[in-house]
Amino acid sequence: MNPRVLSIWLCLACCAVSSCATTVDEARLLHAMRQVEEWDGRDGARGERGPWQITGAVWSMHMPGRPFAEARHEGPARECALRHLAWLRAQLRARGCDDGAFMVALTWNAGLARTLSGKAPMRAYNHALRVENLHRHRP
């Protein structure tokens, strides 16, 4: 099957599954995202920092005037992650998309433009499925 067709099909199928999910518990979702990110104290390959692997662009958008080095620390990183989570959910809702755990995790990993265009890479779908499973099944 054509990878592009498969990607679009997976997005539609996952959106259907995600929209059947219960409401999003943001604290649980952040915890699930942190587990999937598996931060070991080092910056990511593309400069992402901290427990939620926050990029410099995301940090600048939500934490203006604060040094990006703070993203390596739990408190400021969590604050930025919560702001970004709220922003992503608002962006998805504004476009008529589901803002459940799967779609938020997919958008977090692939970016808003690639998610909305159906061009999210397969690794982002895998990431989103892992996050959604942890969010849904964590006690």
Summed up, the helix count is 7
Number of domains: 1
Q: What structural category do the secondary elements indicate?
A: mainly alpha
Query: What is the makeup of the main sheet?
Result: none
Large-scale geometry:
globular
Residue stretches low in confidence (pLDDT < 50, at least 5 long) are none
Through-space gap between termini: 38 Å
**Overall pLDDT:** 87
Instruction: From the 3D structure, determine the CATH topology.
Output: Lysozyme
Radius of gyration: 15 Å
Q: Specify the CATH class.
A: Mainly Alpha
Number of strands: 0
Helix content: 55-70%
The proportion of strand residues reads under 5%
Can you tell me about this structure?
It is a single chain. This protein is mainly α. The protein has a single domain, classed as Lysozyme, CATH 1.10.530. Helices cover 63% and strands 0% of the residues. Helix 2 packs across helix 7 and helix 5 runs antiparallel to helix 7. The protein is globular. The mean pLDDT is 87.
Quick recap:
The protein has about 140 residues and is an all-alpha fold. Helices cover about 65% and strands about 0% of the residues. It has one domain: Lysozyme (Orthogonal Bundle).
